[in-house]
Amino acid sequence: MTNYKLRREEWARAGHLMASETLFVGVGKCGGAITNRIQRRGYRAFYINTAFGDFVELERVSDSQLYAIPEAGGCNKDRELAKDLVADNAAEIISIFNSRYPSFKNYFFVFSLGGGTGSGMTPALAKYMAQQGKKVSLIIVLPTRQENRKPSANAYACLAEIEEMMPYLCNVYIVDNEKEESKEEVNEMIADCIDSVLSLTEHVGVTSDRSSFDGLKPCDDTENRALIHTQGVVQVAKLSSSQSGDAQEPYKIEPLSCMAQADDDAPKVCDEMAISIAYAHKDNFQTAQLYQEFGRPSADIKIGLNTSNDSLVYVFGKEIPKSVSERLEQWIVDFDRDAFDISSAPKFTKDFTKESKSVDVSAIKDPFGLSRRTETGNKKFFEKPNPFVDTLSTAPPTNTKNKNKNGKMKQSNPFA
Which of 5, 59, 367, 373 has its CA 20 to 30 A from that of 281? Predict the structure, then answer.
């Protein structure tokens, strides 16, 4: 078992690039639980919540890593309340980021789409940090079908915000809880997945023989950094040895069970591809197999070694799968349909309502909650207009029109 305390000390001595530049921010209970697993692997972490009691389950954290919204007492899956709370406390949160983590360039925000705290607070925080020149990535968790209507509606609305924000974001990992029974197991899988892609260079000294990697050289720090700065959804798959045990047979490529996958009809194109290879698999690696499955990336595949039993493939630059939003929308429709049991109603009521039952899509039609936003209490941090109304229709931050004379992105108020 890896001693992560010693690992962090070794990273500090070696100046490990990803560990020294990357901060994980867990927002809400779900985001905090996943971030805590990632922290155990040697990374720096910070936790934000509206209920101080949710911090109790976190391990090996100090008070300086925790921020509870004063007198909030939780959001009870109310995204609009969370938006108001982050607007009122944004200045203090940003001050903490700037004072405690001034050298961190990469921010990974981790949160549940279905909750109130994470899905309500994080989009504004993430966009603001991107406007300040930070490289912002997201690890977002989908709700399950077993939950009630509210998480599905929250997730649908938050996903709409994230889709509008994609030009401001780097990596986006979409976690699918439907495919695993144990949340603890899912959290561990996510932590291993993120750790593997951020530590591609950790074991490069084991071998430099290109023949082991089908002609490709191991990844270096600069290439590793470029990977996590790539925009778009990251698709993750696992390589498994053939059941026959024949070393000459290609490995089986299967989706990583805890991650949402690309649509079946999605084009096989990608911006970047990386593979974290288990040492036992390195001598039978074939790039042609990956090209056939995922398409050929615009640059060489980035290669790294790991000491686990699993080899993971990362495909960068994908779009948010349509199947994800369609699934959430269908769940909302199903919840609305099942909310009223018509089987016990009189016949004339059945006939009247059979074709007239419609879904209440108020949370979908107004995904940013603009109809509930007030003119007071939301302008303590900035006095500028709401970017989701006034700026997201403009060009992405890479466009010079969105930058000032110093080359930085123009600021707008994500908390309005």
Answer: 5
